[in-house]
Design a protein that fits this description.
The protein has 20 helices and 14 strands. The protein has 491 residues and is α/β, with parallel strands linked by helices. The chain has three domains: 116 residues, no CATH class; 212 residues, no CATH class; 74 residues. Strands 1-7-8-9 form a four-stranded mixed beta sheet. It has a three-stranded parallel beta sheet with strand order 4-5-6. The termini are far apart. The structure holds iron/sulfur cluster (SF4).
């Protein structure tokens, strides 16, 4: 440690520690917390220890040789990679059998406890709050139905990891990276939406429009999909407009962190300066992991999530897009069937997906990848626009058509085709292998289930038939709308 150096100089490349502390503190509600209470010098030392502990854990996950070294000679393993951390202090993370007993006994080592505090304080937790406080109740209700539907179509583990973001923007056409497992089958990069005066104006007008339409929810969007954001040389300028208009600096995920290291570092700094704590690097090989570890200090990576796509990390890739094609090809070659026992999706948007090069917009939502939806998302509506007025028309129509708050009398009611129906004396169940929904305890529910199962009647026809049977319209509609909110109808 340099005795009289300003504290921020001890953390190569990172913004000042005062800003780091401010960012972390903004999510801590208690008045007293070590992140707020430590002196600058103590905080700098803790931040470094946490950053190195995180780097240790990433190397542990990415590199089987490192795992072997840690189990035989931990001190040498950390020395080899210049990791300034005592593996014993974070043992509950790499030997998880110690985690729960230590947690339960309140004897979690202080560094392990502080790593957890850091993760909690650096999480982007307000995304859902922004959506929940949007003035657009139609979008909220539609998104909530998508969340309910998906929770019955994939495992709880996958469903809980899906953010259902309201917006995503592609600022290029295609992607230069060409990952073999790309779940959205990104085509080769062939055009870029540059920040020309005309494009900048269109972009700013679109953001303003979306702010008007979706309110606070619009800020939870991001600017890549079947694209790598760093293919666009003006990406940062688009993000600055996003921040200026919507108040949030969107997160970045890139597989090109090494393409222009100085640019990547500037982007990380810019994000922190504008309050953006979450960015991610995709790691495509162990060699790339080594190069990223050499190019960025643990402190610089403290707020970066590394998505360990390298084979050695053993991350299961979603059976969607190119990965799905590959699995099918390999199964055909070996005369076997693809294992579809675990339906998956990598999609995370329930909302509007834009391609600014094509001026194309889609209303999409995640679903298990299938023959019909090979990229793991459904498309509810699609259109093109040349002006903001045309885009306004598209958004209005999409919301009007697909996002009613409640059922409309003309809606034809059918159960989703992936649901199994079971009848009982006092109602019915609909289920998938992941979820069972019970509609029971009222005699009329059995008949209601039967009628929906036939799939040939509208809401108005069902309510009037039930009226004849002695169940008033309000009761029938309330039951149907409850089912609607649970996402069990074909839409
Ligand atoms: S996974 Fe991402 S980086 Fe890789 S090809 Fe697809 S869009 Fe590009």
């Amino acid at each position: 440690m340099i005795a009289n150096a300003p504290v921020h100089l001890q953390h190569r490349g990172l913004v000042s520690l005062a800003l780091v502390r401010q960012l972390l503190s903004s999510t801590i509600e208690t008045e007293s917390h070590w992140i707020k209470d430590l002196s600058d010098r103590e905080f700098a030392a803790e931040f470094t220890r946490i950053a190195h502990a995180k780097s240790f854990m990433l190397r542990w996950q990415a590199d089987p040789d490192f795992r072997a070294q840690v189990s035989t000679d931990p001190a040498q393993a950390v020395a080899r990679y210049n990791l300034q951390v005592d593996p014993e202090e974070i043992k509950p993370f790499w030997a998880p059998e110690f985690l729960e007993p230590l947690r339960a006994s309140g004897k979690l080592p202080i560094l392990a406890q502080r790593c957890q505090d850091f993760i909690q304080a650096s999480e982007e937790r307000i995304c859902t709050d922004r959506i929940d406080t949007s003035h657009n109740r139609q979008y909220q209700a539609w998104r909530s139905r998508q969340i309910e539907r998906l929770s019955g179509q994939v495992s709880q583990f996958i469903a809980q990891g899906v953010m259902h973001a309201p917006l995503s923007f592609e600022l290029s056409k295609g992607c230069s990276v060409g990952c073999w497992f790309c779940s959205v089958s990104a085509p080769t990069l062939n055009d870029i939406f540059l920040y020309t005066p005309e494009n900048a104006r269109l972009w700013q007008d679109i953001l303003q429009l979306l702010k008007n339409v979706l309110g606070t929810a619009a800020a939870s969007g991001f600017c890549y999909w079947a694209t790598d954001p760093l293919d666009n040389p003006h990406y940062e300028q688009f993000l600055c407009d996003f921040h200026a208009i919507l108040g949030v600096f969107p997160q970045t995920t890139t597989a090109q962190s090494l393409k222009d290291i100085a640019r990547t570092k500037s982007l990380l700094k810019l994000a922190l300066e504008k309050g953006g704590k979450l960015n991610r690097f995709s790691i495509l090989s162990l060699k790339m992991f080594d190069r990223v570890s050499a190019a960025f200090t643990p402190e610089e990576l403290a707020f970066v999530g590394l998505v360990l796509q390298n084979q050695e990390a053993g991350m299961v890739k979603a059976n969607a897009g190119r990965m799905r094609d590959r699995n099918e090809h390999q199964a055909a070659k070996s005369n076997t069937a693809v294992d579809t026992s675990l339906p998956t999706t990598n999609a995370c948007v329930s909302g509007f997906l834009f391609n600014l090069v094509d001026r194309n917009v889609k209303l999409i939502s995640p679903c298990p990848a299938s023959e019909l939806w090979p990229h793991g998302y459904r498309v509810y509506a699609e259109g093109t626009f040349t002006t903001v007025a045309e885009l306004t028309d598209f958004l209005d129509r999409a919301i009007e058509t697909h996002m009613p708050l409640t059922l409309r009398s003309s809606d034809l009611l059918r159960f989703r085709s992936d649901l199994k129906y079971e009848e009982f004396e006092d109602g019915f169940h609909v289920s998938t292998r992941f979820l069972t929904l019970k509609f029971r305890n009222e005699a009329y529910l059995k008949q209601l289930g039967q009628m929906i199962l036939q799939g040939d009647k509208t809401v108005a026809q069902i309510t009037s038939l039930f009226n004849i049977l002695g169940v008033n319209e309000v009761t029938t509609l309330a039951a149907l709308n409850l089912m609607f909110a649970k996402g069990i109808f074909e839409d």
